[in-house]
Amino acid sequence: MQRQPKYSRDLPEERRRKLIEATARCLAELGVAGTSVREISLRAEVSPGLVNHHFAGKEDLIAQTYWQIGETVDRTLGAALVAAGPDPDARLTAFVKASFEPPILDSDLLAVWIGFWSLVRTDTRVFGMHREVYAAYRERLEGLLGAAAEKRGVTLDTRLTAISLSAMLDGLWLEWCLDPEVFSADEGCQTVLNWIGRLWAFPDTGNRSG
Questions:
Q1: Which of 205, 202, 174, 206 is nearest to 188 (CA)?
Q2: Domain housing 97
Q3: Residues near 6 by Cβ (< 8 Å), separated by ≥ 6?
Q4: What share of residues in the chain are helix, strand, coil (percent, to 5)?
Q5: CA-wise closest residue to 104 among 83, 125, 78, 131
Q6: How far is 168 from 191, CA to CA, in rounded Å?
Q7: Is 209 a domain residue?
Q8: Residue 32 and residue 115: Cα distance in Å, rounded?
Q9: pLDDT tens, residue by residue, 30-55
Q10: Number of structural domains, the chain?
Q11: Residue range 128-149, pLDDT digits in tens
């Protein structure tokens, strides 16, 4: 019998993808402390030396994993907006609904984010990526809110309103991931949509002063 090779011989792009996916699994199951080059390479079925070949060490691989997950979230939300069409209300609603559906609403993703959050204060690269990812996220929210406000002739402080809406979405996502029996995904979605509806019912809320 021929002996099977110990490690896979994938193309470089495939190896990078496997390493990033393995890093996400390690972070979810073992946390940052338990995420080692050896553990990542075992799960990716590649030689440990390939980690340093494709990335500048474990920290770089974790940072790239953070970026990749942020890209996945961005693509998911972007696809929902495209499917919603041009109407501002439909687009804002689609954004909220997509936030309460897989792959964004995933309890396994919480453990991965906790690992990233623990690095934001200590790893300058992760901090920079965190700032960039969330800045793009809030900018998209500002645009959606601004378009919906313009449709109604309301002058809204889109920056502060986007920050508030982002905090609500993050908070409900976190609570659902910790204990999905407290409220359903549909209830979480409707809670946010009700809050947005009150923006238009009380248009002075969130208006830019001065």
A1: 174
A2: 65-201
A3: none
A4: 75, 0, 25
A5: 78
A6: 9
A7: no
A8: 5
A9: 888 889 999 999 998 888 888 888 88
A10: 2
A11: 888 999 999 999 999 999 999 9
